Amino acid sequence: xxxxxxxxxxxxxxxxxxxxxxxxxxxxxxxxxxxxxxxxxxxxxxxxxxxxxxxxxxxxxxxxxxxxxxxxxxxxxxxxxxxxxxxxxxxxxxxxxxxxxxxxxxxxxxxxxxxxxxxxxxxxxxxxxxxxxxxxxxxxxxxxxxxxxxxxxxxxxxxxxxxxxxxxxxxxxxxxxxxxxxxxxxxxxxxxxxxxxxxxxxxxxxxxxxxxxxxxxxxxxxxxxxxxxxxxxxxxxxxxxxxxxxxxxxxxxxxxxxxxxxxxxxxxxxxxxxxxxxxxxxxxxxxxxxxxxxxxxxxxxxxxxxxxxxxxxxxxxxxxxxxxxxxxxxxxxxxxxxxxxxxxxxxxxxxxxxxxxxxxxxxxxxxxxxxxxxxxxxxxxx
Length: 382
Known about the structure:
The chain contains eight helices and 20 strands. It is α+β, with helices and mostly antiparallel strands. Strands 4, 5, 6, 13, 14, 15, 16, 17 and 18 form a nine-stranded mixed β-sheet that branches.
């Protein structure tokens, strides 16, 4: 197993529980500080427009997060709910409007919000730019880096052999069959099946996938408010604002007393070996949004920042399948900026792919090319 992000760690844990001998390799110390999974926080939402597959999968994952909270000593999933805001009315055909109607039809207690209602209930928001939206009580956020650390501990307990600081430089092949991996120090690890779950490194490790997935960097800033009370979860839940167009989203104050604001947009093309730093333009763009939207954060200093790495597929869907041209290789990647929320169910999906067990989700995540029957057009929002 290459990569200990959310695809790799959940799959390693599930495969070990199914009786497989699993070795998990990662090039950095764990949790890997460059992996998108190792951030301070990730959104858990059911809001997926009219996309029933992801809405169903997210509902299953929500049940899983609640179950994990029940088993873990300290809760890492914070169910604050989620506010989804729009620049226009919640009309049919819009991401926000379709999300609202789907959630209502499925019995979730979504509450539509006028600007006045939003200001009264969530006073840190300045309302003029987003005249419509709703609150969904089913959702929230996860302390993602700490969750990965918890899953790594569980994997060790389940018998997974974990090798950190063991970068993989290539595959070992016998004819067309993949029989293991080559480490940067020249060592070879043999395996009956290699699962490439290398996140943003995937199209570099497997260059024949560079035309269907790419690595991008998305800027993330964390602000320190002078008064944290208006940004606590009850008054300031997870939020998404004009997500389908401008891509803004953010979180309540975290255990460090910081408020995270980020953008789920095109990002910029990166190599994982580039300096992964937020640039001045990205910093100013987020700062301008914060100054317009949250009066109490206008003078708040930035205490932390990072470039969150995405592995984007051409259509925004995950990529979980056997390589048709290389027996012995399974790819589990293409999180496209929205995979972490599915952690409680993702490992089972990858394990089913490895074992070739029928799974109703795998058709959507199968090997594909742009323009092929069933391949969907590129869509940024997932």
